[in-house]
Amino acid sequence: MARNPKALPHLLAGLAADSDPDVRQAVARHPNTPPSSLEALCADDQPDVRAALVQNPAAPLALLAKLAADDHWKVRQAVAAHPFAPAELLTALAQDPDRDVRQAVADNPGVPEAALGPLFSGWFAGLGAGMSLLELYQKAKNLEPDLPTALLGKLAGGNEWARRLAARHPSTPAEFLRRLAADEDWRVRQAVAENRGAGTDLLLQLVADADADVRKAVARHPALPELGLSILSLDENLEVRSLVAAHPQAPQDALHLLAGDDDEGVRGAARANPGLDSQVLELYRRAAALDAGLPTEFLTTLSRRSAYARALAAQNPATPPERLAELAQDAEWRVRQGAALNPALGAESLRRLVQDSDRDVRQAVAGHPEASGEVLAHLLRDPDENVRLLALRHPNLDAQTLAQYTARLLVGASRSRHTLNRAVALSHPELPLLELAKVRHRTASWTVRLALAKNPSAPRQALEELAQDGNRWVREAAEKGLRTKDEG
After folding, report:
1. Entry pTM
2. Minimal CB count within 10 Å: which of 124, 360, 379, 458?
């Protein structure tokens, strides 16, 4: 409703007090929101709501001035990025303590020269550029080719803002770019990675940069050689791998690897890349379908890659036994679970997995078609109920183990603090006689006494006592039990 372009002012005024911040953000952006509601939203406790006010085309300049002094950097950044922000606001925000706010000022298409002065910290004075700071900034930012090489060299030796301009400009000499590629500021190194004139040696240097944003910029570079793309396909950062997966020049080894990436989005991008060999795509499809006819060399390759790929190999019956045994001891639980689901997993590996720290792995063992009676007996003592239930239903569970388990359950229930549990256990004919003899017959609960009286295995002495019970149903059950014993 708050996003509907035809929403009326009185409806928006009501929604301005909505409990959900997403609704209030939509109201803050809506041009039909009354001025009084916009003013009230300036005091909203959510910075995203206050920042959304800046995007409202009907927001008055007085409101922008108020938001420019907001306590949260995100709100001030929104003002700094506003295309119609007054020059005096941008000049003031150019001295903001937050780096991202100052960056928004620098990126603003209407940035005035007075705002650039604080950013460059007086460095421009005495440069002898033959043009104003604003003109130089715009020429360098727009990558205009007529900037003199000497001037770009001076920019490369300036403050951070100047170095970034030089680092991004394609006419900056290689000697300066090499120095800037090792700059202490990651934003300068990122600008080198974005430079279309950067050589392959610099790009290969930056693929190992400590900052993920720099590596992302390298991954986007159209001239990055295949070696760099192969290196970045192993990157720990998800966005970097996504960029490589979608890169039109990504080599086969990188696409093959990323088609089995742990992240679904990365896998999807690699598999959608036209450069991926169709045969590899088909192999992955068959692996996901647990096709036992897959070549063993492909399964062996999968077993050495991502957790997702290892899990595929772990579940496939055609995976070589020695690799399968290794996968059953993998550090990743999903891989061990895959091995436990594999009908070809060896008995020794199954015995080890009954003590696995992960419940899902033990559940897979409990459902394994080759689980032995020894394994199932161990799982019947598992702390997880679902594991015990799966083991209890297994066709390989022998009668003796089942009887021992039933007896153990009955004994535990007969000693329970819960009345119903005790009553059910005491009425069961398979409850051991020793446990029946231990029962205190004068228990406060008549339901427990009735259960004992109905148990065909109840000792005569217990029945004789219960035949004198104060509860009629208990007496009748005990008397019936005594008659049965006499007739027998």
Report:
1. 0.72
2. 360
